[in-house]
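Appendix B.2, paired examples.
Example (i):
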Amino acid sequence: MKRLLAVVLLGVTGLSASSPSAWEMTTFADFLKGKFEGVSLGRDGRLAVAAKLETLFDSGQPVIWAVAPAADGGLYVATGHRGRVFKVERDGKSSLLWTAPGPEVFALAVDAKGALYAAVSPDGKIYRIEGGKATEYFDPKAKYIWTLTMGSDGALYAGTGAEGKVYRITGPGQGEEYYATGQANVTSLVADGQGRLLAGTEPNGVLFRISAKGKAFVLYDSNLPEIRAVAVNTDGSILAAGLGGALAKKVQAAQPAAQGAAADAAPAAYSVTVTAAETDIKPPEVPKTPPAATPVAAPQPTTQSAAVVQDVSGVERSAIYRINADNTVDTLFSSKEENVYDILAGAGGAFSFSTDQNGRVYAMSGDRKLTLTAQSNEAEIVRLLRWNGAMLAAAANMGRLYRLGPAGAAGTYESPVYDAGSVARWGRLRWQGEGSVAIRTRSGNSGRPDDTWSEWSEPTRAAAGTQIASPNARYLQLKAEFTGAGAAVTGIVAAYLPQNNPPQIRSITALTQASAVTASGSSKGGASSTPSFSVTVTDTGDPGTATSTGTATQTLSRAQGQQLMLSWQADDPDGDRLVYQVDFRGDGESTWKSLRRNLHENTLLIDGDALADGKYLFRVAASDRESNAGASARDAELVSSPVLIDNTAPVVKVASSKRVGTAADIEFAATDSASALRRAEWSVDAGPWTAVAPVDGVLDSETEQFRLHIADLPAGEHVLVLRVADSGGNAGLAKVVLQ
């Protein structure tokens, strides 16, 4: 497949100067997210024609809970939320057998004489149906009866909730508590053929082997809340399905009737919350042994919310365990996306199981090879059984019974929708396989296919490669059509040229190198440091528009020998490598001058003496031309706010100085050629600096006049120093000797 992909990429390169990409489906996980109809999927990622799920019986009810073979070769089907039991004959004809007094019939069992037993919930009771007539058989005084099974001793066993007990029933009204699990619910119950019972429970996911009244052994304590299904292999090993809380669905479905809702009410809403990472199915692992199960108090159905959620965050959503004869445990399957609802044991260690994800049926061979054999695409498959040489699958939320027939002559596979990230130019479609296979495509710009998408293209049978006919768009979907028993596909590659998005320059910052150091450190000795300034301009939303942000001019400080550092933030939506160009333009100039080209770093140092005093604009341009050659390359640029560079100190001139006794009066002026004055101060005999205000009271011009009066000067000669600093931090000095 790697060779095929390489050929595809080489073939697309000629379509445009941009970099080609490819959507490749070759693995089990790649194909699993699609829609299957008469097509199977092997663990090796092989799609092939397989059996179809044919509708055997449509109950017209919201949900099927249980199916049991009848003694005459027919079937009994129990439904909810209207509490009905149907009889399906061998020829597929069906009839309503019984309407229960409660909304849910969760379990069925048939004894050796052909009598049918039905468990009705809530306020659970067991009814015996024989000769078309139903009579109350046993009342365990339980809220729910989840499961029924016939034991090898001919007794009927019932698993209940919400007290998690198993009852043994030997006749009308004749029953007793057989074992109390200490769990809230007994969710699965199977006889193991050796006079013992296997009981799966919830909410601690404990599997019990009950050997006698009041006597049991914990076979396995799962890390999942519920043991949903149990099956016994021909070699005596036991298969158990752990589940992340599907029992909540049953409980909530039963509640409308328990709360007095009408018989025809819609099913209650429910949800199962799963926080998971990565993909659907992972290689089998033996789970860590969790703490031993502890007794759980029975829930109070009268106060239970209809929004119960089982959260199995951070663990598998479901798993299938094999408990061997020596009580060791192997994990044969685990999933973070699918719930396993039922298991059907086969020969030689093989088995089938069903899930909720698009109503799937999987098969696992004795050597652990996994195959997706069928998919209903619309229903949860909650029950599997063999009937008249075929496998049957009962769908919960569609109320249908499907039959898995022999391998068909045709099938289709519809891929998940592929997101190219932006509008793409489609290239060639290639695949590997054998037999008669045709592939269609369609495309659109909405996340889910709707009437805005293109129609399915004409089928192509050229596996070696053909141009995708669907319109350029962001999303693409494939449909593979298989004809004949030997038709199969093991890999599909769709090449495309993604639209190249322009880079974005977010901001430009200019500052002196000394300012950068000062910002990260502290001044020593407590002395005042030269003030630092930075200028930042942010993206206005159009990276291609070379306009100033319009913010007020700010000023950079500079001391002798400093460098100007320009830095910018830029990125590319496609992850392309960017190359930069930096230009500058002085105030009053009309032409941009180049500072540096072909930069890959996002910083640039400039000698502080290279630019004379004045205001400057800096322009940064970014290009992705090194990743997208030719006309497909995209550019963006951003211009900084005006940056004032001031390298020259103010000139301070003393107009007059006069000393009278212990006082002195001095008049002086200060002028700067580049920026406004910002600070004026004086010091006598190298003493502390004292600020002085200009004559007009506001220090804000390039030229200012000052009058300074100093009182209480001691007798004798003194040295007065006048210091005036401009906006760039440059200081001019003047000295006056006072006699």
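Example (ii):
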Amino acid sequence: MTDLGESRGGGTGTGDQGTLERLLSVVGVGAVELHTAPQGLRTQVTGVHVLDALEPVIRPRELLLAVGVDPSSAHAVDVVRRAGEAGAAGVVFGPGRSDPTVRALQAAAEEGGTAVLFRTAWCTWAQLVGVLRAGLAAAGAPPMPATSGVPLGDLDSLADAVASLVGGSVTIEDTESRVLAYSSTEENVDEMRRLTILGRRVPPWRVAAMREAGFFQALWGADDVLHRPAHGQDPERLVGAVRAGGEALGSIWVAAVAGRPLSPNAAQTLRAAARTAAAHLLHHRTHSSDGRLVEDAARALLEDRGSVEVLAQRASLPPREPCAVLAVGIGSGHAADDGPPGLYGLLTLHCAALGHRVVVVPAGGGTLVLLSGLERAPERADGQVRRLGNALADQLSATIGSAVRVGLGDVVPGLAGAPASRRSAEQALRALVAAAGPHTVARSEDVADTVGILQVVEALRGLTLPPRTSVARLMEFDADHGGSCLVETLRAYLDHFGDVSAASRALGVHANSLRYRLRRIRQVSGLDLENPDARLLAQVQLRLGGES
């Protein structure tokens, strides 16, 4: 730890080698947009190199920035081919692309096995070099264990996590002393923190005083946490610079609260937090607000309350070409956006890597993928949707370590039919999760029986059954005896069509034990297992009770 009056110079390395997936997750969509990645997102990226016409060196596993190369030219196609031959991770072109451009570059990329990306219009080449180099460094920094569950770019949650470790209040600021996030606390805070949070930036007079005292020179030049001892009403403070790839991204401030000292290892914790925060700050800086507008427009359309024209304009989607919706969920039944942090971003990246123009929307407790611009021939469009669903299920399951299931919506003629496609996709996903079988991808017609029974059960939920049915008496008996033995036995017996051997194996009991339980079921409930009406009602009521 360094006192404020001291300054130690030092830079940062480029970090561990990362993948294209991790780099693009950190950088966000505000700086660069992935078009295609024929070799997948696990491609190693070790550096960034600007193409020089006089020294046209292309290095393996690096991103090549094709500055000054018109992406619609034959030269651009040649650059992609040469990049593939040299083993480059990818080529980044400037903004402004047309359909013929995309098709020609994609063909060359698939031939050479290198990724193609486009710089966004609001990020200059000079900015992009710094962003990508910082992104490589940040992507290689291991996260603090206590912050591993914080979604990338969620600075408020990051501030709360750090505050709980250091025993004080936390403020995250950018390089202009503007407040990006702060930890929540119900305790009284010092006046400077109050003014800073209320104004969303450090008061100008305080910034001027710190600049005159040489504080910022010490902060951005230091290789350690700076310490400011308590003085009068100002509590003890620690501050650490957040940087990556030699670029300063911001700072994290820690202040003691209510006269309590900070935790003994606060400085060490702040050092680790500053390394972890680099990826979050970079993602926050480069995340485009335009992307949020596209997402909001898509969500409104999928909920059948939005304008096709607005979404088509904002997202550059063809309004009258075939499209479909995919519903993505975790195998346990949780919605995809309730699953591992970053899955939302992974969906966007993997779809782009497979050459698809999509909008990913967390909506209605799930994650939806709106896939547009499909082939006009129905069979070919269906094949595109199924191939994407299978690829997402396989690749995302391998990435996050949990079974990912994908419901495929019906292909519709244009964006106006997207709400109907969404409904069929969600039906298919719900059936896949309910069945809990080996299948991970399906259309609603593939699982029509499961979709049908779920709809029947849903329709019957409001129906009032007689109070003393056989299943009702059986449930009462199990409840009085502290278990669910007989109910589960009946469920297994009916699910296996009365096959005693199969039902006993499913329950893990001997066949004779199952026969004894069946006799008890008849005695307790009066259920006539030979009566088809009684069996049907029992199965429906068990399904209703099992999902309530």
